[in-house]
Amino acid sequence: MPEKGVWDVIIVGGGPAGSTTARYAAEGGLKVLVVDGRDPIGSPLQCGELVPTNDEMRRLCPNVPEMDDLFQTPDKAISLITKKMHIVPPNKKALVFDFGGMVLNRVAHDEALVDLAKESGAEFKVGARVESVEENKIILRSGEEIEGKIIVGAGGHNDPVRKKYWDIETLNIPVKFVLMDGDFSDSLELHFGSVAPGGYAWMFPKKGGANIGLGIQRKLSKGRSLNEYTEDFISNYEGNISFKGAGSLPMSGAIDSFVKGNKLLVGDSAGMVLPSNGAGITIAMIGGRIAGQVISEHFNNGTSLNEYGKIWEKQMGKVMRNSKRSFMIGSIIFRLPDWILNLMFNRFLKGFIWRAVTCRKMFWII
Q1: pTM of the entire predicted model
Q2: C-alpha to C-alpha distance for 316 and 313, rounded to whole angstroms
Q3: By CB atoms within 10 Å of each CB, which of 2, 173, 203, 221 scores lowest?
Q4: Distance (Å, whole) CA 19 – CA 41
């Protein structure tokens, strides 16, 4: 416990956003506590496990500095490194793109982020669920109260800090997936069309298996359930299912303001997911580093916490706006019948499609 029992920073949620915020805030000499209901953090798995390589991230997010310092992914957390991505329309005639990806062992990845935060001096309280947030205190379900000068919500779209202090609604896309043991190609696959209305399906190969799943917009699902879509898609692959998981992705883009008084949001709770492709792990870590560094500067030099949003805009504003635009256009296009999508997925529009997926301006065909 810190002196006088008051932490400089309490972070609710120890995923990529929370652990990264903790790491950089603690590097500034602050007393940081991360509270998470899971034990261990990272389990159960809730995502497709794909992140770009650091070199790919430099191309995708050119205004983000020092990628190698931020993304220190250990070998034990990488299941497979891929070089190709297949964008697959309903007729299965894929468009193939160069793309450096790392398919993670996500639990090991999140544990490594926790270790980095601990090495910087942050402390963790796991298996402790937050019941409520009251001004400078978080109250656990056990009844324990913990006080902090700054409270950070990093607990996803249902984060208690967000629920209490931010009156916002976002579009959340439900996802279901499996881990399947077997032999798969070494290329990433994204499938579009009626296979996953309003979203996409994926097959991300791993060592000795794959992460396979999809997300949909329920309003476009024509009365069919997410389970039905998932089962139909998974049936295209052969192998033994070793794990079944589910989650939800906020797809409205970053919220307007990340700061209210001494409260901050980061990661999924702040909408830090790229709507056009669902990327959230690396984006949450970018936000976490900015938040942690600004909080440190706030304590040490009196910097306004509002610098958090300003720095985010410089580093990620253009990428996020392009991604939101692509998602909105895609939501219209993917209402079209499969036969029209088949016609649109051609070599003449290949550059247009790739720019949309990778969050660049769409109306520049290459």
Answers
A1: 0.93
A2: 5
A3: 2
A4: 10
